[in-house]
Amino acid sequence: MTVLGGIGFSAPWLLWGLIALPILWLILRAVPPAPIRRRFPGVALLLGLKDDESVSDRTPWWLLALRILAVAAVIIGLAGPILNPSSPQTEGSGPLLIVLDGSWAGATRWPQQAEALDVQLARAARSNRTVAFLTLTRPEELTFQSADVLRTRLAGLQPAPWQPSAANITRAIETMGQSGGFETLWFSDGLDYPGRSDVLAALQAQGAVEIYQTGANVMAMAAAVYEDGAINLSAKRALAGEPREVTLNAQGRDPAGNIRTLASIPAVFEQGQVDASAALALPAELRARITRFDIAGQRSAGATTLVDDALRRREVALIAAREDREGLELLSPLHYIEKALAPTADLIHGSLNDVLPANPDVIVLADVATVTETEQAALLEWIENGGMLVRFAGPRIAASNISRDAEDPLMPVRLRAGGRSVGGAMSWGEPKSLEKFKDSSPFFGLDIPDDVVVSAQIVAQPDPTLSNRVIASLNDGTPLVTRKAIGQGQFVLFHVTATAEWSTLPLSGLFVQMMERLAISSSSASNDTQSLQGTVWTPLRVMDGFGVLSDAGNLPGVDGADLANSPAGPDVRPGIYVSGDRQIARNVVTLDTQLALADWPAGVPVRGMNISPETALAGWLLSFSILLLLADVIASLALSGRLLKRGGIIAVWMIATILQPPAPATAQNADADAFALNATSELTLAYVVTGVSSIDEISQAGLRGLSDTLYFRTSVEPANPIGVDLENDELAFFPMLYWPITPDQARPSDAAYVKLNEYLRSGGMILFDTRDANIAGFGAASPNGRKLQSLAAPLDIPPLEPLPSDHVLTRTFYLLQDFPGRYTGRDIWVEASPPDAEQVEGMPFRNLNDGVTPVVIGGNDWAAAWAVSSSGAPMVPIGRGFTGERQREIAYRFGVNLVMHVLTGNYKSDQVHVPALLDRLGQ
Question: How far out from the chain centre does Cα 687 lie?
Fold first, then answer.
């Protein structure tokens, strides 16, 4: 391809024809030779005559210029001009290899990269070059084929949620060596990784290499860590630069079960820094709902961090040495513990044998001195697997011999005999306050109120390991809380009671915070190699390169050590893994991950991703030349004086006919035809357009959700729902109309009511929904109800009755007795049953009419309950938690019954004839 002035030409030799234009000009402008003058007597007879048609003795210069321009346009158009021609390398003639990093780092800008790939493949196709793809995160054998074939595969290319590994690099280099020479276009994600320079060297050995890389900074997010009552979040960027603020979002399920942003917090990258952090403090109830964190505006697995057991709501089992005494609730050993943990944990009561099979996160023993050997063995096994045992002292432990001579297996330290109290043998002058918590304590950072004092305690026996096990102490250094780790779990002992008998700690807010810290840390066992050694973790949900979770399917389990140490890859995919009752989130980025920008050698050309697509100009130029030639015809007729004569008029009319675009059918007819085709190509549900955008949007989304439900659960496969205009659209195409009522809805015209009545008489059904069941009963008790009465008055509606329990709508597809939508508690009105309908002996329902009820009237806002977004997620919260989702499910079932009823009629009522048929058959 030859490029002249920024425009390429696929057939540049045709441009030589432009040289002939000056010659053509001279020929057209040449003056004809002078005529020979001869005297002829008859000429005198012609004197004084005037010719109505005159011809110029030479062509005007502007007409010649018009013709020259038309010829020039033809020549240039045939030369194949192209705007934004490709680079010389892409226009080569040999094989072309397109290399993709294909990692999560390019996911955010993946559509831009796909567009650039399409442009390059189009250029290669025009040059008849064979092309092959090599994705470094998933290297395969190179297969060079037509660029047009690869263009059809672009939609299937997706980034992987990991970066190229050493094995990937080795495999890719081996694959290159098996092919002959080729040129390379490398689409880089912008991050450096080990082995990238080796790949570049191998590619340069095969031919020229050109890099395409976006200039945007790559961002990522490390795993969230819960410390000191807050969730510590960390964001990273590859290139340090100017200060920049990003928003970190906490995603999770709301009480209705819908995924949404629960909280957001800004994080600031300071000047020249590549790390930004933020601490997010949330109530325990809200924190337990979080499933993931991400960076706003970044759509990649690296910018997403999944949440595992570290933030979920804990299960705590409470066991006391004695039962509560009636009227003395404040003396119950578990009273203050229950009050402290109830907002942040699920509490379990029972004996050890009852609670251990439930595998709680924490077991609290309040003044329980001894346990049986069987219980002790079960407790030790549970603790070694990650459980936390929290014990509180009391009179029973103080009077027992537990952990006196030797350290008890269920105690973190040895204890001295007796206890320590004011007025005793080891009395203090006054109650002691608490010492400030050390930074190694789980209680570090908590403020200690001045009114928290201790007047009695059990005392730990001095020991070389005692100092390492103390996590809270009094101001005289006496241990208040001690801890010992065993396996993946730990023991914790409060050296005071769980009541206010020995200290004021249970009466303070500090006690609540300390118990919450212990409950949170119960399942925060480190997911390192040692703690996961010998375990196998099954992938539950895995993440793709865009950060979207999907079901893991039949992926094999992963060894615990590999899950902790191995880099993310096809064998260890980022996602959620389970083992027993535990869950671990394997994220792409860790706190130790450092992002580095890819740096390329000086001799390698690096270009941006903004590649302008090539635009062929030949068609435009040839069309322009035709227009010029048509203008030449009109100008020639005008100069010759024949433009207004019959032949000229016909010529102008023909030219105008050619230039005039095809006259479309009238808008009304075209729209009507398109509407009819859309409505009749497949079964289609429809809703009445109200003119209120929010209501119409919910109506369309609701019928879309109902159509999806029908598609997956029944043999009905509806098309996308359609909104109908009662004034202009045909209604006969639709088996059912959903009509939401609004107070300001316009009343249809008389012609529209004629169509509506014909629709109802011909078997159609209208579902009237006043959407006000939360505030009014059926009738005129609300503005929507009054509007419904006004709208329905001209309709030919038969007598109505509340939906009877034996109506066919209760069993068309699902067996139903309730018909909720967004709201519940409303009667549903349908056509009244015939007065002579009787129940046949042996059948649970009456012999009702065989037709379809023409109207169903209610106010439960069914469209809101059915409504789903384009991704299939519910759009409107329903109820609370599981109860709300159950309500949504019943609403879907009612919708299915409704559609099946309008399609099949009361066919199920034919079961009433079963006894007579069996009798005739002699059975």
Answer: 27
Mean pLDDT of the chain: 81
Q: Is the pTM of this model over 0.70?
A: no
Nearest to 700 by CA among 738, 741, 745, 756: 738
The residue that leads in pLDDT, 457 or 665, is 457
Q: Are 535 and 488 in contact (CB under 8 A)?
A: no
Could you tell me if 397 and 405 are in contact, meaning their C-beta atoms sit under 8 angstroms apart? no
Token digits for 390?
A: 């929290």
185 vs 132: CA distance, rounded Å: 10
Q: Residue 3's CB: how many other CB atoms inside 10 A? A: 15
Contact criterion met (CB below 8 Å) for 103 and 158:
no
Report the C-alpha gap between 643 and 421 in whole angstroms. 124
- The interaxial angle of helices 20-29 and 61-78, nearest 10 deg, is 150
Cα gap 598→192, rounded to integer Å: 4
- Cβ proximity of 103 and 189 under 8 Å: yes
Instruction: Quote the tokens at residue 61.
Output: 């210069």
Percentage of the residues of the chain whose pLDDT score is greater than 70 = 78
State the chain's maximal CA–CA distance in angstroms: 165
Q: What is the pLDDT of residue 849?
A: 47
Phi and psi at 563, nearest 5°, equal: -65, -35
What whole-number distance in Å separates Cα of residue 745 and Cα of residue 318?
A: 59
C-alpha–C-alpha distance, residues 717 and 707, integer Å:
7
Residue 405 class from Cβ within 10 Å (0-12 exposed, 13-18 middle, 19+ buried)? exposed
Interval 475-517: pLDDT, tens: 888 899 999 988 888 989 999 999 988 999 999 989 988 887 8
Sign of CA dihedral 626, 630, 636, 638: negative
